Amino acid sequence: MLVYASFGYALEEEKEQTLQEEITEYIYHHVQDSHDFSLFSTKDKKTGEKKYYGFPLPVILIDDGVKFFMSSKLDHGKKVVESSGKYYKLYHGKIYETDSEGYISYDENGKVTNVRPLDLSITKSVFSILLVSILMFYLFRSLARSYNDNNQIAKGVGRFFEPIVIYIRDEIAIPSIGEEKHKKYMSFLLTLFFFIWFLNLLGLSPLGVNATGNIAVTFGLALVTFLITNLTANKTYWKHIFWMPGVPVWLKPLLAPIELLGVFIKPFSLMIRLYANILAGHIVLYSLIGLIFIFKNLVGSSLSLVLVFFISIIEVLVALLQAYIFTLLSALYFGFAVQEDDH
Amino acid sequence: MEKLISEFSSGLFFWQTIIFVTLIFLLRKYAWKPILDTVNEREKSIRDSLNSAKEAKKEMENLQAENKKILQEARAESDAMINQAKQSGKELVEKAKSDARSEAENILAQARSSIENEKRAAMNEIKNQVADLSIDIASKVLEQELNKDKNHQEYIDKLLNEKKFN
User: Fold this and answer.
1) Which domain holds residue B157?
2) Which of A118, A144, A216 sits opposite B30 (nearest CB)?
3) Does the residue B2 lie in any domain?
4) What are the residue boundaries of the structural domains of chain A, listed by start?
5) In this predicted model, what pLDDT tens digit does every residue of A201-212 receive, in sequence order?
């Protein structure tokens, strides 16, 4: 009896462990970019084999020429793909060059030593970005057009977006950059705000997209802010960096490296802030959803459900807030860059 | 940090940057520029309309005040005209009245004087007749006692004259 009981306990323990592991794996996969757009997956209870539902996306590899095939060929890492004499295999979300058997070699630290070709695939995130871009273009093009048809008054969904456009101009761009100089930055600020906002919201949809929670995306956004800031900066801005006015001369060379560091830290903070906020939000949300399955009782699971509900609402708010902060800070940096010397 | 760098997907970064920058340029041309232009234009036209409405109101007020003034002036003028007409009417009546009065007085005076004259003439006639009668009677009376004397006649005339009727 005793043996049986402890065995049963051990069995249950093991099962729970695997469930937690499974949830962790799910979360990891969801916040990660992937080569195909899978909507959900089922697991065969007997064989433990996973079956994915979704649609494949094109894989583009730069490796002695352009290699192109659909991600369905990779079959979630189960198959080795041959493309013009080279073999590729998907392993932990990345494509490696292998031999015809799909052999993955490791070094002593357990790191994969296989060569990674330059991967320019249209991944799930790229696909989402494209989707959002097309949606934005359609939305704002139709807003711009509706003015012509309706005597300068917005029609349809544009009525919702027009006040936001005006808000960004009046509350973000003009106070940060200034009345006469804000115009050349407006296109970037507006695109940036709606781009981040829409991608954040898409990330909260059940599609499980996590584009703004991917550092490559936020790095791209921050890089554009960095380039615009420094390419449009005037003499005053550079003078404040390299030869700070209004401080003793001996202090000036000391301040220069700090200021110069600040030039890079500012967009870096933008990148990390957006990335960390969205990624953390996704992980919290997925973990709480996972809790529902771990509790497996009415009280715990329903409490988790309530929690998920509230966190989701907060995440909707965070989606807007992060877009606002990124835009506002970018505008402020542009404002510093074009500020006239008034000392 | 190391994991962050090793996990960094250069492909995603590549596409993200290309798509994002393209989107900025596309939207600038096809959306933001027309939207912001329209919004600015609309705001300008609202501002202008408000200003012109204000001006129109002011003008309207001026016009109203002017109208009031003109009305008052017209009223005053008409009042003056009515008064004048009344005055001249009164004067006319007065004049007519006084004319009539003086005419009547004239007529009366004339009548009176002609009556007086008539009366005098009648009196004279009466006097003469009375004189004649008296003489007749007297002569007849005296015929018996007295000769017809011229002195007596004169004496009687004289007496009659003294006894003028008044």
Assistant:
1) 47-162
2) A144
3) no
4) 57-122, 125-338
5) 999 988 878 889
